[in-house]
Amino acid sequence: MASAGSGEVIDINMLNIQQVESILQSLNNEVDFFTSSMVKLKEAYDKLNSSLGNVERLKTMKGGMEMLVPVTSAMYVDGEIADTKKVIVELGTGYFVEKSIPEAEKFFKRKLDFLKKEIEKIDVVRNQKLEQKQITTNVFKKKLIEHQSQMAAAKS
Questions:
Q1: Domain of 14?
Q2: Is 41 part of a structural domain of the chain?
Q3: Contact, 126 vs 38, CB < 8 A?
Q4: What is the CATH number of the domain that holds 146?
Q5: H or E segment to which residue 95 belongs
Q6: pTM confidence score
Q7: Which residue of 3, 25, 49, 93 has the fewest C-beta atoms within 10 A of its own C-beta?
Q8: Residue ranges in 60-100 assigned as alpha helix (H)
Q9: Into how many domains does the chain fold?
Q10: What is the pLDDT of residues 60-107, one digit of tens each?
Q11: Residue 156 forms part of a structural domain
């Protein structure tokens, strides 16, 4: 069964092969979109989780300690920890704010909780779309076999 735009339910077995193929293509696009979204959210989650870990490690360090500071993902420069009580946190889109270590931890934990919930929501929808795609694929294969049988019978 497929749901039409007006809210009515349509039995996909009643559709022709082109219509089923169109639905299958739409489902493929939706699955790709949700998969891509999950990958991006998981990357953001990993980045925030790494930031939280770094903030937690900073609590054990002392001012004046030497460290390597990443300039890019492949280039580092020597640095020195000036303050272990405050950090500068990126809020997003180029906005930065100074926060105490406990405030930064709360900020990252709140963001991580939000991302985790969003990933779970998208995973549920993605799994529903995968199930719909499997059902539609089976119907498409059945229709294709029927079509090929009809074509072979017409040639005989």
A1: 2-151
A2: yes
A3: yes
A4: 1.10.287.370
A5: strand 95-100
A6: 0.79
A7: 93
A8: none
A9: 1
A10: 888 888 989 889 989 999 999 888 899 999 998 889 999 999 999 999
A11: no
